[in-house]
Design brief:
Length: 467
């Protein structure tokens, strides 16, 4: 049996439960700190604790109970947890970090030879604790959150009812991070592609690059590093997740479909807009014409369009560049010129393209954003256009045949942004999932305290890897 210590992944939790698994917390805090903080507080949201430390522990226990009721293990799961001063400013903060303290491979009865498993799952599969001297998970959380200089005035919400308002719901964060410690991560380096001690994670057996048809376990280091930044092309190839996605993810995903010319025809990832009409099916089909109002070849559309540009986009979909003014200002200007839709090409490299913020009830045309790379490809394809004709036809809409957060074959997309985001890339679901999923790289405000269908896809993935 092979054993290795592994790096902490992100956050985590602990607590005690009376379900099919028992999760206990090992309090590593010093007197008066973290779980031992005796500061008086009023009960909140079903959390009856009357000290700050007690409320923190109650939140941990609530999250642990949820996982305890979900998992199946005869071996108690132990979490060593502390509240520490983690990096923090008034605009950015590390909420916490957590992960498995040890990983094991080739133990007796391992479902998959030559694969790393986290300690908690290893214990479940063995039926006993593989290393009783070491806790299964290690968790650290930001003790200063909400204090001056660290998201001032916005502490963790410690209630158990998810009524967190503008604050960060601790139970939700704990459920997310607990999942990482249970195995919702690869132990392979997602930046270099290097396997841990030359052995793939069980995760790597299910991580599939659809452009090469290779699973991560079968790739070279360089191939894995390249695959980690293929947004929209990295999927989870597990039966449990794919089956559950049919009931969890909503039908329909926003896309830009370029019909002609042939050299750029295809389906492009888009970010949707918070303003304008919602995208629909069959969507809007039209000829694409670029706005060119800024040397050498940009179209910012930050002012009313010139007569030449207005003539070019009238009755067509306007292709504009990001920058210099609000997205709503661009949309109003091309709409006023007669455009029926707008595509915004990003001005910084990266993928997937983020959604567009802003509000203007007067905007009635559909708007999407595409990546810098995709925008340049479309502009290159129409470089030899006529003044009022480009020959490029596209559809802005929703593909009802594809679930939001999955590919054409129903496999769930994994988070593979460009550039790589260490700690987030590969070991999360993609942000295109709708409804939002617990295991996306950011904690969304609309998440439930749920980990399995019909609301969530976290537990199906753990089942795929052997839980």
């Amino acid at each position: 049996m092979k054993k290795l210590l592994t790096a902490i992944c992100m956050l985590l939790l602990a607590g005690a439960s009376q379900g099919a698994a028992t999760i206990t917390i090992v309090n590593g805090d010093a007197p008066g700190v973290g779980f031992n903080d005796q500061t008086p507080v009023a009960p909140v949201g079903g959390n009856a604790g009357v000290t700050l430390g007690a409320q923190r522990l109650n939140a941990f226990q609530a999250a642990a109970s949820k996982w305890g009721q979900t998992l199946d293990s005869n071996v108690p799961i132990r979490v060593l947890a502390t509240w520490d001063a983690l990096p923090c400013t008034d605009t950015a903060a590390v909420l916490g970090s957590a992960g498995a303290l040890e990983v094991f491979a080739d133990f007796p009865g391992a479902p998959q030879p030559n694969a790393w498993y986290g300690k908690a799952e290893t214990n479940k599969l063995l039926g006993f604790d593989a290393d009783p001297e070491v806790p299964d998970l290690r968790a650290r959380f930001n003790v200063n959150l909400g204090q001056p200089g660290c998201f001032t005035g916005s502490p963790f919400y410690l209630g158990l009812d998810n009524n967190h308002g503008p604050n960060t719901d601790l139970v939700t964060v704990l459920l997310h991070e607990f999942a990482h410690g249970l195995g919702f991560q690869t132990y392979t380096d997602d930046q270099t592609g290097e396997l841990l001690a030359g052995i793939p994670s069980i995760w790597d057996y299910f991580l599939l690059d659809t452009t090469t048809g290779k699973a991560w376990k079968d790739m070279s280091n360089a191939e894995r590093a390249a695959s980690a930044v293929k947004s929209g092309k990295l999927v989870w190839n597990g039966v449990q997740v794919s089956n559950a996605a049919q009931s969890v993810l909503q039908a329909g995903t926003p896309v830009l479909t370029v019909l002609t010319p042939a050299e750029v025809a295809g389906v492009y990832q888009v970010g949707g807009a918070a303003f304008g009409p919602p995208l629909n099916s069959p969507g809007l089909t039209g000829e694409v014409m670029p706005v060119v109002d800024t040397p050498p070849d940009q179209g910012l559309a930050c002012a009313p369009l010139s007569p030449l540009n207005a003539r070019a986009v009238r009755g067509r979909i306007a292709l504009v560049d990001r920058g210099a003014c609000a997205f709503t200002a661009k949309a109003r200007n091309v709409q006023d010129a007669g455009a029926v839709g707008m595509i915004v090409a990003d001005n910084v490299a990266g993928a997937p393209p983020p959604d567009l913020g802003g509000s203007d009830p007067a905007i009635v045309i559909p708007v999407v954003r595409i990546t810098l790379e995709d925008g340049q490809a479309l502009k290159d394809a129409v470089a030899r256009r006529a003044r009022t004709r480009s020959g490029m036809y596209a559809n802005i809409g929703v593909n009802l045949a594809v679930r939001a957060g999955a590919d054409l074959l129903g496999r769930v997309l994994m988070y593979a942004p460009r550039p790589n985001q260490p700690g987030s890339s590969v070991s999360h679901y993609d942000t295109s999932a709708r409804p939002n999923q617990l295991m996306e790289p950011a904690i969304n405000a609309d998440l439930r305290h749920e980990v399995k269908p019909p609301w969530d896809l976290t537990y199906p993935l753990l089942k795929d890897i052997g839980w």
